[in-house]
Amino acid sequence: MTPSARVQAAIELLDAVIASARDGGPAADTLIARYFKERRYAGSRDRRAVRDHVYDAIRRAADRPESGRAAMLGLACEHPEIAHLFDGSAHGPAPVQPGEAAAAPGIIPGWIVPLLAGPVEQDALLGRAPVDLRVNRLKAAVEQVVPLLPDAAPIPGVPDALRLPEGAPVEKSGLWQQGLVEVQDAGSQLIAAVCEAKPGQTVMDLCAGAGGKTLALAAAMQGEGVLIAADTIRSRLGRLSPRAERAGATFIQTLLLDQGHEARALESLHGRADVVLVDAPCSGTGTWRRNPEARWRLTQARLDRLVQEQARILDFAAPLLASGGALVYATCALTDREGRDQVESFLQRHDGWIADTFALPLGRAHGPGWLLTPGHDGTDGFTFARLRRRP
Ligand SMILES: C[S@@+](CC[C@H](N)C(=O)[O-])C[C@H]1O[C@@H](n2cnc3c(N)ncnc32)[C@H](O)[C@@H]1O
After folding, report:
1. Domain range annotation of the chain
2. Is there a catalytic annotation at residue 332?
3. What are the tens digits of pLDDT across the range 5-41?
4. What is the Cα Rg of the chain in Å?
């Protein structure tokens, strides 16, 4: 592909990303993979260059641009070498017309800025994310894995975590294929650690998705006890089984919940859990550095719906706890509505519940819970709290 054809390909992909963000379709990574599956003529250098254009244009625009061309023209405003490629050549983009619209630069959509938790360092939200690994204690000890990964550095305070540079191809390594390591942000690892799950306990991961944190809980439980991974989306839970097999965590039970009817399905488990993790659906504000186009998906109405859903999930989670058990609420969001305020309103609705105080190696106290941010902690952004009934 010529350099101009790469820019045109990025424009087409950005059109697809913009439409997908507007209509709730697949993520940019999925769209890019599909695009190149149908265009086998593109070599690996072409694919990398197009992908870089797409992500540079996404990162640069806080708000959803009107078109892929406007997004790329915005990038061209700061990169004359890209502007020159709007040359009308075969397979390349048409020359720029006088007064043509270019996407405005920005990091955070204006309406979200006042909603972010005060301490969040906004400039770091779109930084480059490293690749964090969790050594799977069901299969290996950190000391065994470290000599096999010369580029990996330990992450102080997160005992099973190792950090590799951005883009390290972990999933091609034998260590990953044999289940000795999992890719997991250090912040997610800390949340699983805060659950303090122990062998022999009954632990429920209520919003398990494909089981990232479930697998960390399984390792903490050393494969002993009852670990239930629940979610409302069958395909997500389906992705957990091969991962659990690879990790040697075959004791995990899955539970598919019916959206809106969860409380009834969970009734038989009331009062049984030592730990319930609610890793709630959220705005994903803390993971923008990995999914920068998530900024183009979020709307005020969607945020309102998420806040309501988080409260509803917390309310049907609370009765599951046995006496002395811990309800851990977490989101990868950095808005106070989804974090601090959500926990405070839970404590107001549920008489006799308290939030534990923490002394953790990463992060800061924020309201009744804890805050991790890319700028302060080098992790994805999270808010979490550990709640219990007062003894
Ligand atoms: C942040 S994701 C979970 C990520 C996962 N815990 C991990 O570490 O990989 C939130 C999950 O909540 C699920 N969810 C949404 N509404 C739910 C509900 N009412 N009950 C249970 N799970 C729900 C979503 O399908 C999604 O998989």
Report:
1. 3-83, 130-184, 185-389
2. yes
3. 999 999 999 999 999 999 999 999 999 999 999 988 9
4. 22
Which tens digit of pLDDT belongs to each residue from 71-97? Answer: 999 999 999 999 999 999 999 999 999
Q: Find, among 152, 129, 151, 131, the residue nearest to 142 by Cα.
A: 152
**CATH number for region 130-184:** 3.30.70.1170
Among 339, 134, 281, CA closest to 217: 134
- Fold equal for 130-184 and 185-389: no
Closest C-alpha among 214, 205, 150 to residue 182:
214
Residue nearest to ligand 1 atom 12, measured at CA: 207
Task: Count CB-CB contacts under 10 A for residue 75.
Answer: 24
What is the model's pTM?
A: 0.94
Looking at residue 158, the DSSP 8-state letter turns out to be -
CATH 3.40.630.30 fits 185-389, yes or no: no
Place of tokens 């009331």: 270
Identify which of 185, 231, 320, 384 to mutate to test ligand 1's pocket (most ligand atoms within 8 A of the CB). Answer: 231
Handedness of CA 181, 186, 187, 189 (dihedral sign): positive
Pocket around ligand 1 at a 6 A CB cut-off: 188, 206-210, 212-213, 230-233, 236, 257, 259, 262, 279, 281, 309, 313
